[in-house]
Design brief:
homodimer; 352 residues; alpha/beta; Aspartate Aminotransferase, domain 1; Aspartate Aminotransferase, domain 2; 3-stranded antiparallel sheet; 34% helix
Chain lengths: 352, 352
């Protein structure tokens, strides 16, 4: 067929999101979702929600959600920028903050979306090697660059960088914006939010998808100085004024208000993580120290791709990346104690 | 304060969305929302929704929603591209389809977001004058261009272009993509969806915000040939894989299934529109023929800006654009019969 319009179309190599199997009775440890439901307050707010209000546009100021978030993070409402999942807010950070002719720096092993956004927005970038134990070496980020993005804890390794090291990177790069992607910070790490008073070149990204067990509502946010938040807001308003629907706003508010449930769930996940690492070590696995709700683990005697495929056969889904340096590792989301016991027994059967 | 990073930031003149007054007891006729609540099926689906499922990522295939939409529009599921409100899907259309060194064509009086997206994505554009009765003149779109976008019915005028004229524009521009933004088509117009079989350079945009009374859930979609849908999907997946949250998907499905309620509401709005035009004509108003859920009206004896401000004082919000060619008009959303009667009496008091 003749397509005279074809050369004017923007063609992008599609980014392929992680597998989302449809079958019912599976153990899903592949996309770092919470094994626990969201706070019971979420159920209440949905039950009470007045559906008739949905005829109106959402609040684009998101005032109530900003208020509760500003309280738990001890920042000002004007320091918060909200969006449709942390992927959207990070994409908007890239589009807004990284307009330099020098390359953006990020680790060679990290969240696989960073280079995708660079390609989308024509941002130069340089992948900086993590060391052989997957540590991010702070000194590698002291050279000239057009901005920095670091996931802390890093994905898919789970490795955490101390707040002192993060601060040194920010402090050595005052002429660019440093984005710290804290999707997994609630599972044991110390947040860089406390540095916002000192640094106006810092942007900290958070999500409701992991520790708040609300991947389904798509809410993420950035905390940064008021001026940077204003630039993000302007770019957002030139793209889509109403990115956050009404129900997701109400649900997010309910979740933030229930701090007790939140603490309880994340502590359970941390405990299960440590137990799982121990059990796997008895089977010869070596696991990278993790501060996330997943672990990155390898077994010198058996190919990771083999374990991955065998687990699938018994309906246990973990994540395997067929990429240089990490193709002998499995990334396993921390589920309930019961799910992790089933995982360990399944692995035992595969390798013994 | 010293800001060494300031020159690397992308600074955009913020687009200012329409006024969203917070006060309770107002008549809100300024953002083209439906005066009727969404289908009762929406309330049911929310009541029944299993909040625990929100811990999981939404379906990014949106299979169920695509299925019901494909049925009502008589297209294939692969012809549908979904997003977070029609603003998001149009933005992605601009980013994906308009990569030409020739200018994008759109009317000088139209949805005010089109030139904002052009600026955001560095797209050349040319505003084509509508005639003095605000008609889009089809012949003006036959010249060389990098793409075309037309809102039909047009905003803020409400003017509708016949399907024959739309087809002629598409047919004369087979080498570019023609986007028809049908946000208001359900209020009396004939959709260009029927032309999809014949033209692979056509993209038709729809929204749940107006005729489906669901502005609060942020769902919009594009219908186009499978290949164009694939390009949109690739760009979307390079920006944000999960743009549509789980609850909005479920609510949209429920709404589409209740066709009877939908027909009933839109017929009521059409009737109220015609009644209002008649009543206003008795007060000396001249109204552009409208096929939308709003009217665009002027009174030769009184300044539109004055009526606008006076209505605000009695808590009736309509829309006024202080822009060349249209600064003597008011755009008034069609509310309930009762709301429109109150509007007409309020105007009577202002002008008599």
């Amino acid at each position: 067929m003749n397509k005279p319009w074809i050369d004017k179309i923007r063609k992008i190599k599609p980014y392929v999101p992680g597998e989302q199997p449809d079958i019912g009775d599976i153990i899903k440890l592949n996309t770092n979702e919470s094994p626990y439901p969201p706070s019971p307050m979420v159920k209440n707010i949905i039950d009470e929600y007045d559906a008739d209000k949905l005829r109106l546009y959402p609040s684009f100021k998101c005032d109530e959600l900003k208020t509760v978030l500003s309280e738990i993070h001890n920042v000002n409402k004007n320091n918060i920028f909200l969006g449709n999942g942390s992927d959207e807010v990070i994409a908007l950070c890239f589009q807004t903050f990284f307009n330099s002719d020098k390359p953006l720096f990020f680790p060679d092993i990290t969240y696989s979306f960073y280079d995708v956004w660079c390609d989308l927005y024509n941002i130069q970038y340089k992948r900086i090697k993590v060391d052989d134990s997957f540590k991010i070496v702070k000194e590698d980020y002291f050279g000239e660059n057009g901005g920095i993005v670091i996931a802390n804890p890093n994905a898919p390794t789970g490795r955490y960088m101390s707040l002192e090291e993060i601060e040194e990177i920010i402090n050595r790069n005052l002429d660019v914006i440093v984005v710290i992607d804290e999707a997994y910070i609630d599972f044991g790490g110390e947040s860089a939010v406390s540095l916002l008073d000192k640094y106006d070149n810092l942007a900290v990204v958070r999500t409701f998808s992991k520790s708040r067990a609300l991947a389904g509502i798509r809410v993420g946010y950035v905390m940064c100085c008021e001026e940077l938040a204003g630039y993000l807001e302007a770019v957002k308003n030139s793209f889509n004024s109403y990115t956050l629907n009404s129900l997701s706003q109400a649900i997010a508010v309910a979740s933030v208000k229930d701090n007790c449930y939140f603490e309880n769930c994340r502590n359970k996940i941390i405990n299960t993580r440590e137990k799982t690492i121990l059990e796997l070590s008895k089977l010869g696995f070596q696991t990278i120290p993790s501060m996330a709700n997943f672990i990155f683990t390898t077994n010198p005697s058996i190919k990771a791709s083999f374990i991955f495929e065998e687990l699938k056969k018994v309906n246990i889904f973990v994540r395997y990346f067929d990429k240089p340096r990490i193709d002998e590792y499995l990334r396993i989301t921390i589920g309930t104690d019961d799910e992790m016991e089933k995982l360990v027994s399944a692995i035992k059967k595969i390798i013994l």
